[in-house]
Amino acid sequence: MMPLKRTCKEVTALVVAREDRALPLSERLALRIHMNFCDACPVFERQFMTLRNALRQWHSYQSRDNDE
Fold it and tell me: Structural domain boundaries of the chain?
């Protein structure tokens, strides 16, 4: 496999991993290249970011409720 060519399964794993760690340059490039040519992975990324943001908001609401 070419170093910058990734499958959708690998790319979705990188999208999730990006939340926990900084990706090396090669992985960031592979992610960007794949996203430019794939129809499904950008949709997954948007859905994942929406879920992440919703969980963050829920957590902040929970923290406020516990402070009162």
Answer: 8-67
User: Rounded distance, CA 34 to CA 14, Å?
Assistant: 11
The single residue listed with the structure tokens 């859905």 is 47
Instruction: Tell if the pTM clears 0.85, that is, is over it.
Output: no
| DSSP helix/strand/coil, 9 | helix
pLDDT score of 2 = 62
First-to-last C-alpha distance (Å) of the chain: 55
DSSP string, 13-64: HHHHHTTTSPPPHHHHHHHHHHHHH-SHHHHHHHHHHHHHHHHHHHHHHHHH
